[in-house]
User: Fold this.
Amino acid sequence: MTEAHTDGRDITRRTALRRGAGVAAAGAAAAFAGPPAAAHARPGPAAALPATVAGVRIPDGELARRSVAFARQVSSPSLFQHVLRSYVFGALVFDRQGVRYDRELAFVAAVLHDLGLVEAYQTPAERFEVDGADAARRFLERLRVPAERVDVVWDAIALHTSMGIATRKRPEIALVAVGSGLDFTGNGLERIPSDAVADVLEAFPRLEFKKAALDTVLSLCRTKPMGELMHPFAEVGRRHLPGFPVPTVEDLLMAAPFAE
Assistant:
């Protein structure tokens, strides 16, 4: 087996895999032992959602209501408000462009898109997007939602951080990526009138979302670091956590067991 030298460190494929096995086991044992209270406190009594926000209709069918109740029950207040803003922001962008889409399906996908950030639905080593997509699939299958609609929700959740892929898919999938990305980074905010943005933030306040989200990302990096392999969250782990064990893409490339 060949060795590669990067930044003065010797990293081999065996080393990377050994690290991966060790941290995955540690993640399973830790089982999200210490989530920040601000990010994971449960919401209080349920309040009805508004019928419209910034001119965007909030779906109110049986499936939408049950999805909202489920997301509200398992999510922190900050996370719950984020998934609602994600739908409205995505709808504002798409509606202004005249895009036609299944509004209820897009809403359900948006409301459920961050289940993988909830402790109860996390596996030891999967990406949080896959954990969330799997949890949403189980929830929707219990409600006997048709398989083809469940598949759209699964794809929307699994791909929501892969903007360049999601936006090439059907609009319900793209909407979740665009809306959640806009709320997370502000990218594309200029496409929405300022009064509409103000309406969204009044209806679904941010509740220190930046801090809560960063705390959650760091918790994932601590407890299931190999779930962040080749994931954007790994950069957060490398910045904040000394000795973060996840190899970079360069490490993996240079450790490939091929003679050049």
In short: The chain has a mean pLDDT of 86.
